[in-house]
């Protein structure tokens, strides 16, 4: 299982690229919007709190996050990647966010599908899971459109700014018996 090439976007409006230091104020700006913040477990207090995502090594056991950037301007409009990666079990948890300015254009669904296909096909992941805060209906729709199956409600699964949050668990798995490279 290796990350020998990064996934590529075929969406006409956005591309995938490594996160850069110049992205941090933009990213923090939209993550701080109540419209975004209330349905996520993000808790950065300043743009500098996101700095560990810049120039991270893309290895199978590492945190993996990419910028979703506008093709015309290069400006970050979202991020997507994996955390809780387990090379031994060939699993990872998908996470993404998107600026409200990019909502409703099929970007989240296409980028999620791109990363899931890449994780199964290129990296050899058997299971890609994702969680959505129980109030995040938009994210649940994205996951369902991408072929994720809702597995159950996890009560008090993660703290959300100091309070226990209920999250739905979703999974996209390789069918039993499928030979997976990686």
Report, as a whole number of angstroms, the end-to-end distance. 4 Å
Helicity, as a percent range: 10-25%
Rg, Å, rounded? 16 Å
CATH topology: Aminopeptidase
User: Structural class of the secondary elements?
Assistant: alpha+beta
CATH architecture: 3-Layer(aba) Sandwich
Helix count, DSSP H or I runs of 4 or more residues: 4
CATH superfamily: Gcn5-related N-acetyltransferase (GNAT)
Number of strands: 7
N-to-C series of helices and strands: EHHEEEHEHEE
CATH class: Alpha Beta
Spatially, the strands of the biggest sheet line up as: 1-2-3-4-5-7-6
Sheet with most strands: 7 strands, mixed
Average residue pLDDT? 89
How many domains in all?
1
Q: Topology of this structure?
A:
Blueprint: E1 14-18, H1 24-31, H2 34-37, E2 64-70, E3 76-86, E4 91-98, H3 107-123, E5 127-133, H4 137-145, E6 149-160, E7 163-173
Parallel strand pairs: 4-5
Antiparallel strand pairs: 1-2, 2-3, 3-4, 5-7, 6-7
Would you kindly provide a written description of the structure presented here, covering whatever features stand out?
There is one protein chain. The chain is an alpha+beta fold and 182 residues long. The protein has a single domain, classed as Gcn5-related N-acetyltransferase (GNAT) (Aminopeptidase, 3-Layer(aba) Sandwich), CATH 3.40.630.30. It has four helices and seven strands. The chain is globular. The N and C termini lie close together (4 Å).
